[in-house]
Amino acid sequence: MTQQWLPPIHWDGDTVAILDQRLLPRKEVFLRCTKPQQVVNAIRNMAIRGAPAVGVAGAMALALGAQNIQAADPQTFKRKFVRLCQQVKDARPTGNNLGWAVEKIYSVVVENPGSGVLELQELIRQKADEILSEDVAANLAIGEHGKELMPRGARILTYCNAGALATADYGTALGVIRAAHASDPSIEVYTCETRPFLQGSRLTAFELMKARIPVTLITDNSVGTLMQQGKISVVVVGADRIAANGDTANKIGTYMVAVLAKTHHIPFYVAAPRSTIDPTLGEGREIPIEQRDPKEVTHFNGKAVAPLKVPALNPAFDVTPHKYIEGIITEVGVLHKPFGKAIRKAFEM
């Protein structure tokens, strides 16, 4: 069952409504976007984040933009639309779902060369709606496949936020947790705070409490101790881009968690739809890593928490090599090693 109390992005007539995640958990405020650039800004400024959600937002931005394009003929429409596609695709570099969604939307133009402007606008809107609904269906399927991997009474560690807020609804890693909890209410969850943007403490804890799933917030640097004490039985995280060999980019700090899990013989799973997999990249070192504003590290709520002018690094993501990953949970099933072969097979399904 989807969590209709918290749709992070949806249509309100011809307006794209985006839940501003920067204000959570204190306020639930929706941004109302009537222009594609407003959606792009929401993506860049982290008002909406999470690779699947960003992909859906990109698709809806293009549908919104297509409606706003003034063109007397299809050729003029297509030229303007191509420029818009590039602007949306460039909003954030690491997640694969955004580029995937842009390509899906652009394929409508390519596959309908004889269509007029009004028909193209309608077809683009239909494709965006399809991407949104398919994301929800994929998340539900991920949950069903993933719950079978969670031991009874599991103490699950998750990192960052891969829930309803990071998708169109329900979630990937949290989708697994939701489905597992529905079958086994005895499970418990530990969520890391996820410095510096605090997605774990602000968003994941918020979502799980809303869903009445037992959750305990921990600092990022306490993961090793909890594993050493036997308090973690399984790890499940989301992903922003997965290379053809299974190497996975996710929120910075995920690699640290994966190494610790391997050291303590704890299974580490990645939950993501196939749209997160980028088969054009052979391995993780080819994944572009977004570098964000150092002030996210040196400041908190606009106030300095470090010496003025101290240099700071703020990579938004890191890459976990596939050797640390037990399995990749997708909407078509759980992919196991060798991941290259499993991924190729998954795209044939």
Write the layout of secondary structure elements.
Layout: E1 9-12, E2 15-19, E3 30-33, H1 36-44, H2 51-68, H3 74-89, H4 96-110, H5 117-147, E4 155-158, H6 173-183, E5 188-192, H7 199-210, E6 215-218, H8 223-228, E7 234-237, E8 241-243, E9 248-251, H9 254-263, E10 268-271, E11 277-278, H10 295-298, E12 299-300, E13 303-304, E14 317-320, E15 327-330, E16 333-335, H11 339-346
Parallel strand pairs: 4-5, 4-7, 5-6, 7-10, 8-11, 10-15
Antiparallel strand pairs: 1-2, 2-3, 8-9, 9-14, 12-13, 15-16
Sum up the structure in keywords.
globular, 349 residues, seven-stranded mixed beta sheet, alpha/beta, 2 domains, four-stranded mixed beta sheet, Four Helix Bundle (Hemerythrin (Met), subunit A), Rossmann fold, 11 helices
Report what the structure shows.
- The protein has 349 residues and is α/β, with parallel strands linked by helices.
- It has 2 domains: 9-140, Four Helix Bundle (Hemerythrin (Met), subunit A), CATH 1.20.120.420; 145-346, Translation initiation factor eif-2b, domain 2 (Rossmann fold).
- Helices cover 40% and strands 17% of the residues.
- It has 11 helices and 16 strands.
- The chain has helices at 36-44, 51-68, 74-89, 96-110, 117-147, 173-183, 199-210, 223-228, 254-263, 295-298, 339-346; strands at residues 9-12, 15-19, 30-33, 155-158, 188-192, 215-218, 234-237, 241-243, 248-251, 268-271, 277-278, 299-300, 303-304, 317-320, 327-330, 333-335.
- It has a 7-stranded mixed sheet, with helices on both faces. Strands 11-8-9-14 form a 4-stranded mixed sheet, with helices on one face. A 3-stranded antiparallel sheet has the order 1-2-3, covered by helices on one side.
- Helix 3 packs antiparallel against helix 4.
- The chain is globular, with a radius of gyration of 20 Å.
